[in-house]
Amino acid sequence: MPGIADGLYRVARLETAFRPRRWDFAEREAARIDAHWADALAEKPKMFDGAVLMLADVEIVTAPDGDILRGCFFETRFRNLLAWFDFGVPDGTAFNGFAMAALRGRDGAFLLGEMGAHTANAGQIYFPAGTPDRNDIFGDRVDLAASVSRELEEETGFAPEEAPPAPGWSVVVAERKIACIQERLSPLSAAEARARAEAFLAGDPDPELARIHIVRGPQDIDAARMPGFIQTFLRDAFVSQPAG
Q1: How do residues 48-93 score in pLDDT, each as one tens digit?
Q2: Closest CA to 93 of 169, 19, 145, 11
Q3: For residue 2, is it within any domain?
């Protein structure tokens, strides 16, 4: 099917390429973007205007061994992505596509991080994640599985082998975001995993996360601080595989 509509999809794998291109929005609005960034930096001076990847040409393709998410990433600066959102996503050709690690304890509960006060999304609660960058480019492809493993370890201290992935991906498309969510299964209980992750955060001089939250069921969903795509994923996950 061409393009992709808002909703939740389950796919067997991701096939994302790296294709450099010009972004008309960033070029057309450069002066306004620079002014917006100056204001944002004055409020949160620790934000970094690094190179990030945006996603375009997205589609779900049916294959004999399961559906595939395909798309092409291109590089831009973080200031352009931030302005794109704050200006109301005026360019409908691109998505903010990213991977997330849905860390799940052996008891079925999920662990989510609360973003620190110095971050762009301060106070919001979601899974370890990050906008893809140059570290995720391997030749002509972007490896979101590598991205999600890196973010999980950087934000919680769990190495990839300590929380291996469940098969497949859940893909939530909403408001020009494409969240590619991979469950990562820990042999620890959620409480044990939280204690370990928070000990890791306590030893980090500049942690991205302020604290770890446990979600054992729909009753623990924080509608005010969890993005809509996170709420969509959690409600679906607890229906298909309730916490034990």
Answers
A1: 999 999 999 999 999 999 999 999 999 999 999 999 999 999 988 8
A2: 19
A3: no
E strand or H helix at 117: none
Our count of domains for the chain comes to: 1
Classify residue 90: in a domain, yes or no: yes
* Cβ contacts of 74 within 8 Å, gap of 6 or more: 18, 19, 20, 21, 23, 53, 54, 56, 94
Q: What is the pLDDT of residues 220-236, one digit of tens each?
A: 999 999 999 999 999 99
Task: Give domain status of residue 55, yes or no.
Answer: yes
pTM of the model: 0.92
Q: How far is CA 55 from CA 131, 152, 176, in A?
A: 10, 21, 10
- What is the pLDDT at residue 1? 38
- Per the listing, tokens 């996503």 go with 89
Number of H helices, E strands in the chain: 6, 13
Is there a contact between 103 and 163 (Cβ–Cβ < 8 Å)? yes
Domain of 174 in residue numbering reads as 7-240
Q: Give the whole-angstrom CA distance, residue 157 versus residue 137.
A: 23
Q: CB neighbours (10 Å) of residue 134?
A: 12
